[in-house]
Amino acid sequence: MDIDVRGPRFGAAVTAVVLAVVLVTGSAWLLAWQTLAFALGAAGGVGRSPYGWLFRRAVPPRLGPPTDFEAPEPPRFAQAVGLFFAVVGLAGYAIGPEWLGQAATGCALAAAFLNAAFGYCLGCEMYLVIRRVTARAK
């Protein structure tokens, strides 16, 4: 079942804000929260993440029904990529070195910002490239 394209973009905007605050404060606890959000999105799809829940409750009632849809697999893969960077960042903030936490968080922030501001999902594009390459290899 396809998903409303506004949902992942909304989630990316919230994620970008959270990750920016992590970079400013160095809060491992806030990054742990974002890691959990990524894990829930990767495991159950973006609709199962806390930001997906917030989107469903707050956004469509104000904007109206969706007009554009997308397959759920690319955004779900993007959540898994975000999860990877968040786990690496969390390790950097929690056990060191701190620069690792900052670098991994910065990479995740850059990807979230691209999606939120321009609708360009790096993780989704990675998913599509991997699908094309593996389809040709068969």
Helix-strand layout with pairing:
Layout: E1 3-4, H1 6-25, H2 28-44, H3 50-58, H4 60-63, E2 69-70, H5 73-95, H6 98-118, H7 122-137
Antiparallel strand pairs: 1-2
Helix pairs in contact: 1-2, 1-3, 1-6, 2-5, 5-6, 5-7
What does the model show?
With 138 residues, the protein is mainly α. The chain is 80% helix and 3% strand. The chain has seven helices and two strands; from the N terminus they run E-H-H-H-H-E-H-H-H. A two-stranded antiparallel ribbon has the order 1-2. Helix 1 runs antiparallel to helix 2, helix 1 (6-25) runs antiparallel to helix 6 (98-118) and helix 2 packs antiparallel against helix 5.
Task: Describe what is shown at a glance.
This protein is mostly helical and 138 residues long. It has helices at 6-25, 28-44, 50-58, 60-63, 73-95, 98-118, 122-137; strands at 3-4, 69-70. The protein contains seven helices and two strands, in the order βααααβααα.
Key descriptive features of the protein:
single chain, 138 residues, mainly alpha, two-stranded antiparallel sheet, 7 helices, globular
Please give the oligomerization state of what you see.
single chain
The topology string of helices and strands comes to EHHHHEHHH
Profile the largest sheet. 2 strands, antiparallel
Mean pLDDT: 95
Number of strands: 2
Rg over C-alpha atoms, rounded to the nearest angstrom:
15 Å
Low-confidence spans: none
- What is the helix tally? 7
Give the class from helix and strand content and strand pairing: mainly alpha
Helix content: over 70%
Strand order of the largest sheet: 1-2
